[in-house]
């Protein structure tokens, strides 16, 4: 599944040219021409990374980032004007991952996007308590789950079931295996209880991302997570 980039800029030429570049490199791109539309788009269908201009109508890039950071750790790269040091410092202090000055080389922007995505993946992989599978991140120490950088509120049982599925993406887990993971081998629980938990898990993820379909049912066999 291609990684999705949200591109937010009021310059239509930049939206068009950068979209063509990223799509040619295998990314899916969603474009927005003002900050308010971009923020709503990111929150409604979270991408893997956002590239946003600072000076935009309705909401500027700094305001978008400030609101976004209240609920999301989504990687963000700013596009800034030449010699705009103050905005760059403010953006970094608000939690931007990188910035690039206009006018910019598209090759440089592509390299920065890939570098930020790699850093996020490497940081998660270096923590043994953190499990990252594609857009999913599970922090066992803090009992935190995020999907595309946005938090998903899970019960302990839901967290354990999801962790069991995500440990080996693409491999099927039977209901009995998921029961053991969630309740322990000594518990006496109807295996159909797992179906109810899976239904609630899907509902919670779809509330954050309408396109979520990574928890798959194999009828008569069990469930699997497809990263």
Q: Could you describe the 3D structure shown?
A:
α2 packs parallel to α3. The chain folds into two domains: 4-125, 3-Layer(aba) Sandwich (Rossmann fold), CATH 3.40.50.2300; 130-225, Orthogonal Bundle (Arc Repressor Mutant, subunit A), CATH 1.10.10. The strands form three sheets. The chain has a five-stranded parallel β-sheet, sandwiched between helices. 43% of the residues lie in helices and 20% in strands. The protein has eight helices and eleven strands. β7 (136-139) and β8 (144-147) form a beta hairpin. The chain has 227 residues and is an alpha/beta fold.
Short description:
The chain has 227 residues and is an alpha/beta fold. It has helices at residues 12-24, 35-44, 61-68, 85-94, 106-125, 156-166, 175-183, 193-208; strands at residues 4-8, 28-32, 49-53, 76-80, 98-101, 130-133, 136-139, 144-147, 150-151, 215-218, 222-225.
Detail the topology: elements first, then pairings:
Layout: E1 4-8, H1 12-24, E2 28-32, H2 35-44, E3 49-53, H3 61-68, E4 76-80, H4 85-94, E5 98-101, H5 106-125, E6 130-133, E7 136-139, E8 144-147, E9 150-151, H6 156-166, H7 175-183, H8 193-208, E10 215-218, E11 222-225
Parallel strand pairs: 1-2, 1-3, 3-4, 4-5
Antiparallel strand pairs: 6-7, 7-8, 8-9, 10-11
Helix pairs in contact: 2-3, 3-4, 6-7, 6-8
């Amino acid at each position: 599944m291609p990684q999705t980039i949200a591109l937010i800029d009021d310059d239509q030429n930049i939206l068009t040219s950068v979209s063509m570049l990223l799509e040619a490199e295998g990314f899916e791109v969603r474009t927005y021409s003002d900050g308010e539309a971009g923020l709503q788009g990111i929150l409604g269908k979270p991408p893997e990374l956002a590239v946003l201009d600072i000076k935009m109508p309705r909401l500027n890039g700094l305001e978008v980032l400030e609101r976004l950071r209240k609920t999301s750790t989504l990687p963000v790269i700013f596009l800034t004007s030449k010699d705009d040091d103050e905005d760059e410092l403010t953006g970094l202090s608000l939690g931007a991952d990188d910035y690039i000055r206009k006018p910019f080389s598209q090759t440089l922007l592509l390299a920065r996007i890939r570098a930020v995505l790699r850093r996020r993946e490497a940081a998660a992989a270096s923590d043994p308590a953190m499990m990252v599978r594609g857009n999913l991140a599970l922090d066992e120490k803090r009992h935190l789950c995020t999907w595309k950088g946005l938090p998903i509120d899970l019960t302990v049982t839901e967290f354990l079931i999801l962790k069991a599925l995500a440990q080996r993406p693409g491999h099927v887990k039977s209901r009995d295996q998921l029961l053991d993971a969630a309740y322990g081998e000594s518990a006496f629980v109807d295996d159909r209880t797992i179906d109810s938990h899976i239904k609630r898990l899907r509902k919670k993820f779809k509330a954050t991302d309408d396109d979520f379909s990574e928890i798959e049912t194999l009828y008569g066999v069990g469930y699997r997570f497809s990263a």
